[in-house]
Write the structure tokens for this entry.
Amino acid sequence: MGNNKVKPLVIVPTYNESENIAALIARILEELPFADVMIVDDGSPDGTGDIVDEITSLDSRVHCLHRPAKMGLGTAYIAAFKWALERHYTHCFEMDADFSHDPTDLARLLEATKDFDIALGSRFYAGRLSIVNWPLSRLILSMAASVYVVMISGLKMWDTTTGFKCFRREVLEHLPLDKVKSEGYSFQIDLNFRATRMGFKVGEIPIVFTDRTLGGSKMSKKIVFEAIWRVWQLRFAAIGEDLSYFFRGKRRPQPGKRQEKDQA
Ligand SMILES: Nc1nc2c(ncn2[C@@H]2O[C@H](COP(=O)(O)OP(=O)(O)O)[C@@H](O)[C@H]2O)c(=O)[nH]1
Ligand SMILES: [Mg+2]
């Protein structure tokens, strides 16, 4: 897929990833030499942002958004999506900085966007778990979360919270980015939920997720609790929206479906 028309932006949010970031950027560009990379660094005290600045001065494919303080994953991605939409990128990737997401899978995800509007790197594809080195407690939490999310949201996907994904530009053009207030896991659920309701096709490809070996996790209880109530909020907001269209006698716009027709 390395033709001139495809120009992906691989977005990587970072907070204290000085041990990983240089090697990760090199690996991304090895796999997708025609892509650009955007690091969104939240003023990491360990100097991640300085390392990235050095790389951006040497390679014009690498960009960095510096934010003054740790502001969360969701707003980091939204800022980078907006940046990408102001330019001519055809795809945006979400990817962690800690090598849990294998750069080798980038090309597979990109390829999958020929069939899907969003391609997810799935850690539970077809119910088969492919996570290496997580403690049992975290595996159980993650599996339980997935079942819970599917039950409440009605999303028909295996891995609703994966942070390794590739969006076609059109999806991001239509998503109401300013309305998305979720962080962490619920940010992933939120985008999948809104995109699906808009008629965009979300597909999964199996990946192997390996826990980080360098640096520490930033997952917190707050992020888990946010996800628990946010799924209900999304569901009720959707019901409210459906009712509002129903009583106005209008059809809810589904830009994703329209696009499918245009392509046919
Ligand atoms: N810019 C930014 N990046 C963050 C923030 N929180 C986490 N990250 C990054 O998001 C990615 C996933 O975080 P991580 O700690 O690995 O979460 P885990 O894999 O769920 O344990 C990593 O690249 C982190 O550096 C944040 O508040 N701001
Ligand atoms: Mg991680």
Q: What stands out?
A: The chain has a mean pLDDT of 93. Strands lie at 8-14, 36-41, 62-66, 91-94, 118-122, 131-132, 165-168, 202-206, 209-210.
